[in-house]
Design brief:
This protein is of the alpha+beta class and about 100 residues long. The chain has a domain of about 60 residues: His-Me finger endonuclease fold, CATH 3.40.1800.10. It is about 30% helix and about 20% strand. Strand 3 and strand 4 form a beta hairpin. The longest helix has 13 residues. It is elongated, with a radius of gyration of 21 Å. The model has no long low-confidence stretch (mean pLDDT about 85).
Amino acid sequence: MPPASSYGVGEEEFQELLAEQRGVCAICRRPDPEHLDHDHRTGWVRGILCFNCNGGLGQFKDNADVLARAITYLRGTTWQRVLIHPGVFQMCSPTRGRPPSQRS
Protein backbone atom coordinates (compact mmCIF):
# COMPACT_ATOMS: atom_id res chain seq x y z
CA MET A 1 0.00 0.00 0.00
CA PRO A 2 1.29 3.51 -0.72
CA PRO A 3 2.19 5.55 2.35
CA ALA A 4 -0.61 7.53 4.01
CA SER A 5 1.01 10.74 2.81
CA SER A 6 0.08 9.70 -0.76
CA TYR A 7 -3.51 10.50 0.18
CA GLY A 8 -2.69 13.80 1.88
CA VAL A 9 -2.69 12.24 5.35
CA GLY A 10 0.38 12.61 7.51
CA GLU A 11 1.35 10.44 10.45
CA GLU A 12 -0.33 12.78 12.95
CA GLU A 13 -3.64 12.74 11.05
CA PHE A 14 -3.36 8.97 10.64
CA GLN A 15 -2.99 8.59 14.42
CA GLU A 16 -5.93 10.96 15.03
CA LEU A 17 -8.14 8.93 12.70
CA LEU A 18 -7.02 5.71 14.34
CA ALA A 19 -7.86 7.19 17.76
CA GLU A 20 -11.34 8.17 16.48
CA GLN A 21 -11.77 4.52 15.49
CA ARG A 22 -10.62 3.52 19.00
CA GLY A 23 -7.54 1.79 17.56
CA VAL A 24 -9.50 -0.85 15.65
CA CYS A 25 -10.35 -1.67 12.03
CA ALA A 26 -13.38 0.31 10.85
CA ILE A 27 -15.02 -2.90 9.57
CA CYS A 28 -14.09 -5.94 11.67
CA ARG A 29 -13.02 -4.07 14.84
CA ARG A 30 -9.75 -5.99 15.21
CA PRO A 31 -6.95 -4.00 16.83
CA ASP A 32 -4.02 -2.27 15.15
CA PRO A 33 -5.20 -1.77 11.56
CA GLU A 34 -2.53 -0.39 9.23
CA HIS A 35 -4.17 0.34 5.87
CA LEU A 36 -5.54 3.76 5.03
CA ASP A 37 -8.64 3.08 2.95
CA HIS A 38 -9.77 5.50 0.27
CA ASP A 39 -12.43 5.77 -2.41
CA HIS A 40 -10.73 4.90 -5.69
CA ARG A 41 -13.09 7.16 -7.63
CA THR A 42 -12.70 10.31 -5.56
CA GLY A 43 -9.46 9.67 -3.68
CA TRP A 44 -11.15 10.63 -0.40
CA VAL A 45 -10.00 8.78 2.71
CA ARG A 46 -12.69 6.63 4.36
CA GLY A 47 -10.90 5.12 7.33
CA ILE A 48 -8.26 2.71 8.49
CA LEU A 49 -8.68 -1.00 7.85
CA CYS A 50 -6.84 -4.20 8.62
CA PHE A 51 -5.14 -6.10 5.80
CA ASN A 52 -8.02 -8.54 5.33
CA CYS A 53 -10.83 -5.97 5.26
CA ASN A 54 -8.88 -3.70 2.93
CA GLY A 55 -8.20 -6.62 0.59
CA GLY A 56 -11.83 -7.75 0.78
CA LEU A 57 -13.11 -4.37 -0.36
CA GLY A 58 -10.57 -4.47 -3.16
CA GLN A 59 -11.73 -7.91 -4.29
CA PHE A 60 -15.28 -6.58 -4.49
CA LYS A 61 -14.01 -3.49 -6.39
CA ASP A 62 -15.67 -1.21 -3.78
CA ASN A 63 -19.03 -2.12 -5.35
CA ALA A 64 -21.76 -1.71 -2.70
CA ASP A 65 -24.32 -3.61 -4.80
CA VAL A 66 -22.07 -6.66 -5.05
CA LEU A 67 -21.27 -6.46 -1.34
CA ALA A 68 -25.00 -6.28 -0.53
CA ARG A 69 -25.60 -9.42 -2.62
CA ALA A 70 -22.73 -11.12 -0.79
CA ILE A 71 -24.37 -10.27 2.55
CA THR A 72 -27.71 -11.63 1.33
CA TYR A 73 -25.95 -14.77 0.15
CA LEU A 74 -24.25 -15.27 3.52
CA ARG A 75 -27.43 -14.73 5.47
CA GLY A 76 -29.68 -16.88 3.35
CA THR A 77 -27.82 -19.92 2.13
CA THR A 78 -27.45 -22.03 5.23
CA TRP A 79 -28.44 -25.45 4.01
CA GLN A 80 -30.66 -27.33 6.42
CA ARG A 81 -31.99 -30.84 6.72
CA VAL A 82 -35.76 -30.78 6.37
CA LEU A 83 -37.93 -33.78 7.21
CA ILE A 84 -40.07 -34.42 4.13
CA HIS A 85 -41.40 -37.84 5.10
CA PRO A 86 -40.89 -39.98 8.21
CA GLY A 87 -37.21 -40.89 8.19
CA VAL A 88 -36.56 -39.00 4.93
CA PHE A 89 -34.67 -35.72 4.92
CA GLN A 90 -33.89 -33.31 2.12
CA MET A 91 -31.26 -30.57 2.13
CA CYS A 92 -32.73 -27.18 1.31
CA SER A 93 -31.87 -23.52 1.50
CA PRO A 94 -34.26 -20.77 2.60
CA THR A 95 -33.33 -18.67 -0.45
CA ARG A 96 -33.40 -21.44 -3.02
CA GLY A 97 -36.94 -22.66 -2.91
CA ARG A 98 -39.04 -24.15 -0.19
CA PRO A 99 -39.08 -27.62 1.21
CA PRO A 100 -41.66 -29.85 -0.41
CA SER A 101 -45.17 -29.72 1.01
CA GLN A 102 -46.02 -32.39 3.57
CA ARG A 103 -48.85 -33.38 1.22
CA SER A 104 -46.60 -34.30 -1.72
